[in-house]
Request: fold
Amino acid sequence: MPQSTEIADFIAGLPKAELHVHMQGAASAETILALSRKYPEEGLPQDEAAMREFYRFTDFANFIAVYVAASRLVRTGDDIHQLAVGLGRDLAATNVRYAEVTVTADSHLKVGIAPDELADALTRGRADVLAASGVDIAWVYDIDGDFGIPSGERTLAWAAEHRPAGSIGFGIGGREVGVPRSDFADLFRRATDIGLQSLPHAGETVGPDQVWSAIDQLGAKRVGHGLAAAQDPTLMAALAERGIALEICPTSNVCTKAVPDLASHPFPILREAGVRLTLNTDDPGMFGTDLNNEYRIGHEVFGLDRAALAELARESVRASFAPDSTRAKVLAEIDAYVQTAP
Ligand SMILES: [Zn+2]
Reply:
Protein backbone atom coordinates (compact mmCIF):
# COMPACT_ATOMS: atom_id res chain seq x y z
CA MET A 1 0.00 0.00 0.00
CA PRO A 2 1.48 3.38 -0.92
CA GLN A 3 2.37 5.72 1.93
CA SER A 4 -0.28 8.29 0.98
CA THR A 5 -3.07 5.74 1.29
CA GLU A 6 -1.77 4.55 4.65
CA ILE A 7 -1.66 8.07 6.03
CA ALA A 8 -5.13 8.79 4.59
CA ASP A 9 -6.46 5.73 6.43
CA PHE A 10 -4.74 6.80 9.64
CA ILE A 11 -6.26 10.29 9.38
CA ALA A 12 -9.72 8.96 8.55
CA GLY A 13 -9.74 6.80 11.67
CA LEU A 14 -8.21 9.40 13.98
CA PRO A 15 -10.77 10.82 16.45
CA LYS A 16 -10.75 14.61 16.03
CA ALA A 17 -12.23 17.89 17.25
CA GLU A 18 -13.26 20.76 14.99
CA LEU A 19 -13.16 24.26 16.47
CA HIS A 20 -13.81 26.55 13.50
CA VAL A 21 -16.74 25.63 11.29
CA HIS A 22 -19.71 27.79 10.26
CA MET A 23 -23.04 25.98 10.18
CA GLN A 24 -24.29 27.69 7.01
CA GLY A 25 -21.00 27.36 5.11
CA ALA A 26 -20.58 23.78 6.28
CA ALA A 27 -23.82 22.64 4.66
CA SER A 28 -23.09 19.97 2.08
CA ALA A 29 -24.58 20.02 -1.43
CA GLU A 30 -26.85 17.18 -0.25
CA THR A 31 -28.25 19.26 2.62
CA ILE A 32 -28.73 22.31 0.40
CA LEU A 33 -30.42 20.14 -2.27
CA ALA A 34 -33.01 19.02 0.29
CA LEU A 35 -33.74 22.66 1.18
CA SER A 36 -33.78 23.67 -2.50
CA ARG A 37 -36.49 21.05 -3.13
CA LYS A 38 -38.45 22.45 -0.19
CA TYR A 39 -38.27 25.97 -1.67
CA PRO A 40 -38.25 25.41 -5.47
CA GLU A 41 -39.42 29.01 -6.06
CA GLU A 42 -35.84 30.14 -5.29
CA GLY A 43 -34.83 28.64 -8.64
CA LEU A 44 -31.81 26.75 -7.33
CA PRO A 45 -30.86 23.34 -8.78
CA GLN A 46 -33.32 20.51 -8.08
CA ASP A 47 -31.16 17.52 -8.96
CA GLU A 48 -27.97 16.21 -7.45
CA ALA A 49 -25.56 16.70 -10.34
CA ALA A 50 -26.69 20.27 -10.99
CA MET A 51 -26.50 21.12 -7.29
CA ARG A 52 -22.96 19.74 -7.06
CA GLU A 53 -21.94 21.87 -10.02
CA PHE A 54 -23.64 24.96 -8.59
CA TYR A 55 -21.99 24.36 -5.23
CA ARG A 56 -18.47 23.75 -6.57
CA PHE A 57 -16.01 26.43 -5.44
CA THR A 58 -14.61 28.44 -8.34
CA ASP A 59 -13.60 31.81 -6.95
CA PHE A 60 -14.37 34.08 -4.04
CA ALA A 61 -17.00 36.18 -5.81
CA ASN A 62 -18.83 33.02 -6.79
CA PHE A 63 -18.51 31.72 -3.22
CA ILE A 64 -20.28 34.81 -1.85
CA ALA A 65 -23.04 34.53 -4.48
CA VAL A 66 -23.61 30.85 -3.70
CA TYR A 67 -23.47 31.52 0.05
CA VAL A 68 -26.13 34.22 -0.23
CA ALA A 69 -28.34 32.01 -2.43
CA ALA A 70 -28.01 29.05 -0.04
CA SER A 71 -28.76 31.31 2.93
CA ARG A 72 -32.13 32.18 1.36
CA LEU A 73 -33.10 28.52 1.81
CA VAL A 74 -32.88 28.80 5.61
CA ARG A 75 -36.14 30.37 6.76
CA THR A 76 -37.53 28.39 9.67
CA GLY A 77 -36.43 26.61 12.80
CA ASP A 78 -36.86 23.31 10.96
CA ASP A 79 -34.40 24.49 8.29
CA ILE A 80 -31.88 25.34 11.02
CA HIS A 81 -32.46 21.91 12.53
CA GLN A 82 -31.85 20.35 9.10
CA LEU A 83 -28.51 22.20 8.78
CA ALA A 84 -27.46 20.99 12.23
CA VAL A 85 -28.40 17.37 11.54
CA GLY A 86 -26.67 17.43 8.13
CA LEU A 87 -23.54 18.89 9.70
CA GLY A 88 -23.61 16.25 12.44
CA ARG A 89 -23.74 13.52 9.79
CA ASP A 90 -20.77 15.05 7.93
CA LEU A 91 -18.75 15.49 11.13
CA ALA A 92 -19.38 11.89 12.14
CA ALA A 93 -18.26 10.70 8.69
CA THR A 94 -14.82 12.23 9.29
CA ASN A 95 -14.56 10.95 12.88
CA VAL A 96 -15.03 14.35 14.48
CA ARG A 97 -16.10 13.61 18.05
CA TYR A 98 -16.58 17.18 19.27
CA ALA A 99 -17.23 20.41 17.36
CA GLU A 100 -17.63 24.08 18.21
CA VAL A 101 -19.96 25.29 15.48
CA THR A 102 -20.40 28.96 14.61
CA VAL A 103 -23.92 30.22 14.01
CA THR A 104 -24.59 33.75 12.77
CA ALA A 105 -27.74 34.04 14.85
CA ASP A 106 -28.55 37.60 13.81
CA SER A 107 -28.78 36.72 10.12
CA HIS A 108 -31.36 34.02 10.98
CA LEU A 109 -33.29 36.43 13.22
CA LYS A 110 -33.24 39.07 10.46
CA VAL A 111 -35.01 36.78 7.98
CA GLY A 112 -37.82 36.39 10.48
CA ILE A 113 -37.07 33.20 12.40
CA ALA A 114 -38.51 33.79 15.88
CA PRO A 115 -35.90 34.04 18.64
CA ASP A 116 -37.27 31.09 20.63
CA GLU A 117 -37.69 29.02 17.44
CA LEU A 118 -34.03 29.55 16.55
CA ALA A 119 -32.90 28.59 20.05
CA ASP A 120 -35.14 25.54 20.11
CA ALA A 121 -33.86 24.40 16.69
CA LEU A 122 -30.25 24.56 17.90
CA THR A 123 -31.05 22.74 21.13
CA ARG A 124 -32.97 20.02 19.24
CA GLY A 125 -30.35 19.78 16.50
CA ARG A 126 -27.57 19.31 19.03
CA ALA A 127 -29.51 16.63 20.91
CA ASP A 128 -30.43 14.78 17.71
CA VAL A 129 -26.82 14.82 16.44
CA LEU A 130 -25.58 13.48 19.77
CA ALA A 131 -28.20 10.71 19.75
CA ALA A 132 -27.58 9.75 16.11
CA SER A 133 -23.77 9.70 16.06
CA GLY A 134 -22.34 10.62 19.46
CA VAL A 135 -20.87 13.83 18.02
CA ASP A 136 -20.97 16.51 20.69
CA ILE A 137 -21.71 20.00 19.30
CA ALA A 138 -21.30 23.32 21.08
CA TRP A 139 -22.40 26.69 19.69
CA VAL A 140 -20.47 29.89 19.03
CA TYR A 141 -22.53 32.95 18.04
CA ASP A 142 -20.70 35.24 15.71
CA ILE A 143 -21.59 38.54 14.15
CA ASP A 144 -20.63 39.88 10.76
CA GLY A 145 -18.48 42.91 11.62
CA ASP A 146 -20.03 44.82 8.72
CA PHE A 147 -23.35 44.87 10.58
CA GLY A 148 -21.63 46.48 13.54
CA ILE A 149 -22.57 46.94 17.16
CA PRO A 150 -26.37 46.76 16.64
CA SER A 151 -26.00 43.23 15.26
CA GLY A 152 -23.81 42.33 18.23
CA GLU A 153 -26.37 43.73 20.66
CA ARG A 154 -29.19 41.70 19.10
CA THR A 155 -27.05 38.55 19.15
CA LEU A 156 -26.01 39.02 22.75
CA ALA A 157 -29.57 39.78 23.91
CA TRP A 158 -30.83 36.69 22.11
CA ALA A 159 -28.09 34.47 23.55
CA ALA A 160 -28.64 35.79 27.07
CA GLU A 161 -32.40 35.32 26.97
CA HIS A 162 -32.74 32.06 25.03
CA ARG A 163 -29.46 30.27 25.72
CA PRO A 164 -29.64 27.11 23.58
CA ALA A 165 -28.06 24.04 25.18
CA GLY A 166 -24.35 23.92 24.36
CA SER A 167 -23.83 27.70 24.08
CA ILE A 168 -20.13 28.36 24.66
CA GLY A 169 -18.76 31.25 22.64
CA PHE A 170 -19.14 34.66 21.04
CA GLY A 171 -17.31 35.66 17.89
CA ILE A 172 -16.94 38.13 15.06
CA GLY A 173 -16.19 37.45 11.42
CA GLY A 174 -16.55 39.12 8.04
CA ARG A 175 -14.58 42.00 6.63
CA GLU A 176 -11.58 43.18 8.66
CA VAL A 177 -10.50 46.20 6.62
CA GLY A 178 -12.26 49.23 8.10
CA VAL A 179 -13.84 47.13 10.87
CA PRO A 180 -11.41 47.42 13.81
CA ARG A 181 -11.87 44.62 16.32
CA SER A 182 -11.28 47.16 19.10
CA ASP A 183 -14.71 48.74 18.39
CA PHE A 184 -16.30 45.61 19.81
CA ALA A 185 -14.46 45.50 23.15
CA ASP A 186 -17.46 46.39 25.31
CA LEU A 187 -19.66 43.85 23.53
CA PHE A 188 -17.12 41.07 24.07
CA ARG A 189 -16.71 42.03 27.73
CA ARG A 190 -20.46 41.63 28.22
CA ALA A 191 -20.47 38.34 26.29
CA THR A 192 -17.79 37.10 28.68
CA ASP A 193 -19.92 38.31 31.61
CA ILE A 194 -22.73 35.96 30.55
CA GLY A 195 -20.32 33.04 30.30
CA LEU A 196 -19.52 33.03 26.57
CA GLN A 197 -15.87 32.63 25.58
CA SER A 198 -14.30 35.30 23.37
CA LEU A 199 -13.56 33.61 20.02
CA PRO A 200 -13.06 36.30 17.35
CA HIS A 201 -11.75 35.94 13.80
CA ALA A 202 -8.73 38.24 13.40
CA GLY A 203 -5.66 38.56 11.23
CA GLU A 204 -7.13 36.56 8.35
CA THR A 205 -6.81 39.23 5.69
CA VAL A 206 -5.04 42.11 7.43
CA GLY A 207 -1.95 42.64 9.58
CA PRO A 208 -0.98 41.72 13.16
CA ASP A 209 -2.73 44.77 14.69
CA GLN A 210 -6.11 43.05 14.54
CA VAL A 211 -4.71 40.00 16.33
CA TRP A 212 -3.24 42.22 19.04
CA SER A 213 -6.67 43.87 19.37
CA ALA A 214 -8.33 40.47 19.57
CA ILE A 215 -6.15 39.25 22.41
CA ASP A 216 -5.69 42.52 24.33
CA GLN A 217 -9.05 44.26 23.82
CA LEU A 218 -11.48 41.42 23.10
CA GLY A 219 -9.86 38.99 25.55
CA ALA A 220 -9.68 36.28 22.87
CA LYS A 221 -9.34 32.75 24.27
CA ARG A 222 -8.58 31.53 20.74
CA VAL A 223 -8.20 33.42 17.48
CA GLY A 224 -9.93 32.45 14.24
CA HIS A 225 -7.18 32.26 11.57
CA GLY A 226 -4.69 34.73 13.10
CA LEU A 227 -2.35 34.16 10.15
CA ALA A 228 -0.94 37.69 10.37
CA ALA A 229 0.76 36.76 13.65
CA ALA A 230 3.46 35.11 11.54
CA GLN A 231 4.60 38.62 10.51
CA ASP A 232 5.23 39.66 14.12
CA PRO A 233 7.65 37.68 16.31
CA THR A 234 6.58 39.59 19.44
CA LEU A 235 2.97 38.64 18.79
CA MET A 236 3.87 34.99 18.20
CA ALA A 237 5.77 35.01 21.50
CA ALA A 238 2.77 36.56 23.27
CA LEU A 239 0.39 33.94 21.82
CA ALA A 240 2.75 31.15 22.83
CA GLU A 241 3.28 32.50 26.32
CA ARG A 242 -0.44 33.08 26.96
CA GLY A 243 -1.34 29.72 25.44
CA ILE A 244 -3.81 31.26 22.98
CA ALA A 245 -4.43 28.81 20.14
CA LEU A 246 -5.07 29.75 16.51
CA GLU A 247 -7.79 28.09 14.45
CA ILE A 248 -6.01 27.36 11.19
CA CYS A 249 -8.12 26.58 8.09
CA PRO A 250 -5.69 25.94 5.20
CA THR A 251 -8.13 25.24 2.33
CA SER A 252 -10.27 28.23 3.31
CA ASN A 253 -7.19 30.46 3.38
CA VAL A 254 -6.37 29.51 -0.23
CA CYS A 255 -10.00 29.83 -1.40
CA THR A 256 -10.37 33.33 0.08
CA LYS A 257 -6.86 34.27 -1.11
CA ALA A 258 -5.69 34.98 2.45
CA VAL A 259 -2.63 33.05 1.25
CA PRO A 260 -1.61 32.61 -2.41
CA ASP A 261 -1.20 28.84 -2.11
CA LEU A 262 -0.72 26.10 0.47
CA ALA A 263 3.07 26.17 0.08
CA SER A 264 3.05 29.81 1.27
CA HIS A 265 0.87 29.09 4.31
CA PRO A 266 2.43 30.40 7.55
CA PHE A 267 1.50 27.24 9.52
CA PRO A 268 5.17 26.11 9.71
CA ILE A 269 6.35 29.56 10.90
CA LEU A 270 3.68 29.69 13.61
CA ARG A 271 4.43 26.13 14.68
CA GLU A 272 8.16 26.78 14.83
CA ALA A 273 7.47 29.79 17.10
CA GLY A 274 5.60 27.57 19.54
CA VAL A 275 2.12 28.99 18.89
CA ARG A 276 -0.64 26.51 19.74
CA LEU A 277 -2.31 25.46 16.49
CA THR A 278 -5.48 23.60 15.55
CA LEU A 279 -6.66 22.47 12.11
CA ASN A 280 -10.19 23.28 10.95
CA THR A 281 -12.42 23.57 7.88
CA ASP A 282 -14.26 26.95 8.16
CA ASP A 283 -16.87 26.42 5.39
CA PRO A 284 -16.26 22.82 4.30
CA GLY A 285 -19.42 22.35 2.21
CA MET A 286 -18.65 25.38 0.12
CA PHE A 287 -14.87 25.00 -0.07
CA GLY A 288 -15.12 21.31 -1.00
CA THR A 289 -13.09 20.11 1.97
CA ASP A 290 -13.50 18.18 5.19
CA LEU A 291 -11.35 17.81 8.28
CA ASN A 292 -9.65 14.66 6.96
CA ASN A 293 -8.53 16.68 3.95
CA GLU A 294 -7.11 19.43 6.18
CA TYR A 295 -5.10 16.83 8.14
CA ARG A 296 -3.92 15.37 4.84
CA ILE A 297 -2.64 18.84 3.93
CA GLY A 298 -0.94 18.87 7.34
CA HIS A 299 0.94 15.76 6.28
CA GLU A 300 1.62 16.51 2.63
CA VAL A 301 2.29 20.25 2.79
CA PHE A 302 3.38 20.94 6.38
CA GLY A 303 5.28 17.68 6.77
CA LEU A 304 3.46 16.40 9.87
CA ASP A 305 3.94 12.70 10.57
CA ARG A 306 1.46 10.43 12.35
CA ALA A 307 2.64 11.42 15.82
CA ALA A 308 2.40 15.13 14.96
CA LEU A 309 -1.06 14.68 13.43
CA ALA A 310 -2.27 12.85 16.54
CA GLU A 311 -0.80 15.62 18.70
CA LEU A 312 -2.67 18.18 16.57
CA ALA A 313 -5.90 16.26 17.23
CA ARG A 314 -5.15 16.30 20.97
CA GLU A 315 -4.38 20.03 20.84
CA SER A 316 -7.79 20.73 19.29
CA VAL A 317 -9.41 18.94 22.22
CA ARG A 318 -7.24 20.77 24.77
CA ALA A 319 -7.90 24.16 23.11
CA SER A 320 -11.66 23.52 23.12
CA PHE A 321 -14.23 24.52 25.71
CA ALA A 322 -15.71 21.06 25.96
CA PRO A 323 -16.70 19.88 29.44
CA ASP A 324 -13.92 18.01 31.26
CA SER A 325 -15.69 14.67 30.79
CA THR A 326 -15.87 15.15 27.00
CA ARG A 327 -12.24 16.27 26.82
CA ALA A 328 -11.10 13.23 28.80
CA LYS A 329 -13.21 10.89 26.67
CA VAL A 330 -11.97 12.19 23.30
CA LEU A 331 -8.33 12.37 24.46
CA ALA A 332 -8.60 8.73 25.62
CA GLU A 333 -10.11 7.78 22.24
CA ILE A 334 -7.17 9.43 20.45
CA ASP A 335 -4.62 7.65 22.66
CA ALA A 336 -6.33 4.28 22.22
CA TYR A 337 -6.49 4.77 18.46
CA VAL A 338 -2.83 5.75 18.13
CA GLN A 339 -1.81 2.60 20.03
CA THR A 340 -3.87 0.26 17.86
CA ALA A 341 -3.79 1.98 14.44
CA PRO A 342 -2.17 -0.20 11.79
ZN1 LIG B 1 -14.55 31.47 9.82
Remarks:
- The radius of gyration is 19 Å.
- The chain has one domain: 3-340.
